[in-house]
């Protein structure tokens, strides 16, 4: 569930996945692994999230600064340990990084759409590769002290949902600064 709800079914919360705040990048630009500056509302959003998120035992983050700086702000505000997990990084879009989506050759977009999980027309990482590492990270986080907050990216959130809910989750939006509660075992 998005936002600040509680998990369904009464199960314990193992992981809370939090998408980073809005970065300083133009709308419509592909920026997976590109390390971007923070948007102008970062300080206010970080303070709001530090207050609004459910209690957690630790904070784990993607190494990209748009996640790491948010994770650091939350960990500091709550006096929690923080660690980096490179498996939480966004997908590598290869030569598409920093390019407007509408400037990417249509044939490349069509090839990717025809085989979303395995195509690599951009030369970067496949969706399947990202999903595999996201699943491994989530499994490890769920086995540790819980609940844990994982500050990450939309691609990771979509990968987790696609594994749990099916392929339609690849098209689900995950707003900036929203979180997803993942029930424990």
UniProtKB/TrEMBL annotation:
GO terms for molecular function: phosphatase activity. One of its GO terms (cellular component) is cytoplasm. It holds the Pfam family His_Phos_1. InterPro entries: His_Pase_superF_clade-1, His_PPase_superfam, PGM_Phosphatase. It comes from the Bacteria. This is Alpha-ribazole phosphatase. It comes from Rhodobaculum claviforme.
């Amino acid at each position: 569930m998005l936002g600040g709800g509680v998990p369904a079914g009464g199960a314990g919360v193992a992981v809370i996945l939090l998408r980073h705040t809005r970065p300083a990048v133009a709308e419509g630009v592909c920026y997976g692994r590109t390390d971007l500056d923070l948007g102008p509302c970062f300080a206010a959003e970080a303070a709001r999230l530090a207050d609004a998120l459910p209690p957690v035992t630790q904070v784990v983050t993607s190494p990209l600064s748009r996640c790491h700086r948010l994770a650091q702000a939350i960990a500091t505000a709550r006096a929690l340990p923080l660690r980096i997990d490179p498996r939480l990084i966004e997908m590598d879009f290869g030569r598409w990084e920093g390019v407007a989506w509408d400037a990417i050759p249509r044939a490349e977009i069509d090839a990717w759409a025809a085989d979303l999980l395995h195509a690599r027309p951009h030369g970067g990482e496949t969706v399947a590769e990202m999903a595999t590492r996201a699943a491994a990270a989530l499994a490890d986080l769920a086995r540790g002290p819980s609940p844990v907050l994982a500050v990450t990216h939309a691609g990771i959130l979509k990968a987790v949902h696609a594994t749990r809910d099916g392929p339609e989750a690849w098209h689900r939006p995950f707003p900036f600064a929203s979180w997803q509660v993942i029930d424990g075992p």
